[in-house]
Amino acid sequence: MEMMLKNMFQALGKSRSANKLAKKYGLRFGAARFVAGETIKQSIDAVRQLNQDGRVATLDHLGEFVFSEEEAIQSADMCIQTLDAIASSGVQSNLSLKMTSLGLDISRELCMKNMKRILDRARQHGNFVRIDMEDYAHCQISLDIYRELREQYDNVGIVIQAYLFRTVQDIQDLNALKANLRLVKGAYKESPQVAFPEKRDVDDNYKKIIEMHLANGNYTAVASHDEAIINFTKQFVSARGIDREQFEFQMLYGICEDLQKQLVREGYRVRVYVPYGVDWFGYFMRRLAERPANVWFVLKNMFK
């Protein structure tokens, strides 16, 4: 049953018609728990609340269904406006983005042009931009673009997914760049030809890449709600004497609030991934697919 629900939500997340319908009806039935609103102002207000109890953030203007150059430019404009709003408001937040929303599926040149516009503005504000990793089909080109951008920019990082077979090699290769990485398990449905199908193997690989990247002396964002992974990281950095300035824990907006606050009280840096925007449906479906408890939360809201 759980796997059936997971597959259903992942398929819905890629559906253009379902996305269109969701936009029409807005953030209902529990989506507002995971998405900070549809406007920049709402997202900044959410970050301000997080900052008040010691959490920092990374803002993501949601957008995965981009089919024209005009839409890609508009999406890049929203990223720039978000960076401006972060600077003017004084909140503590980075920016996260998906390169498909900047035109990656239209042309590499268009995506690069938009990325450079965004990184230039981030550099003006002294801010940092994280490139989200998407499905396996976009993995290699995303890493290629990241490497090219690092020739000009040091205020950009990328995400690496533990469930892919290639990941250990990617970590080794990226060490030459002293890359700032967000390490995640991975949330897309992938073929067993390219990804570990069993959770135990994903967890083992996740621990391995956390060890590798930290031991290499690189900044590491451990993005997980799994307390076993979090405790593993704590034990590893303690045993190795790794400074807390070299890593942070990252979690999603609206998930494991108590754990986030507990880690802050323990003196760890906690960054919350705060998504906003009208194109929220694909993100919301992936959150439902990841965790059955999220589904029951939504169902309860539907029948209130």
Question: Topology, please?
Answer:
Blueprint: H1 2-13, H2 16-25, H3 40-52, E1 56-61, H4 69-89, E2 93-97, H5 108-124, E3 129-131, H6 139-150, E4 156-161, H7 167-174, E5 181-184, H8 199-215, E6 220-223, H9 227-240, E7 247-252, H10 257-265, E8 270-276, H11 281-290, H12 292-302
Parallel strand pairs: 1-2, 1-8, 2-3, 3-4, 4-5, 5-6, 6-7, 7-8
Helix pairs in contact: 1-11, 4-5, 7-8, 8-9, 11-12
Give keywords.
304 residues, alpha/beta, 51% helix, disordered C terminus
Task: Please write the CATH class name.
Answer: Alpha Beta
Number of domains: 1
Class from helix and strand fractions: alpha/beta
Q: Count of helical segments?
A: 12
Q: What overall form do the CA principal axes indicate?
A: globular
CATH topology: TIM Barrel
Order of SSEs: HHHEHEHEHEHEHEHEHEHH
The count of β-strands is: 8
Global Rg: 18 Å
Major β-sheet profile? 8 strands, parallel, barrel
Helical amount? 40-55%
Mean pLDDT across the residues is 88
Strand content: 5-15%
> Could you give the order of strands across the largest sheet?
1-2-3-4-5-6-7-8
For the record, give the distance between the C-alpha atoms at the N and C termini, rounded to a whole number: 24 Å
> From the 3D coordinates, which CATH architecture would you assign?
Alpha-Beta Barrel
Stretches where pLDDT falls below 50 for ≥5 residues?
A: 297-304
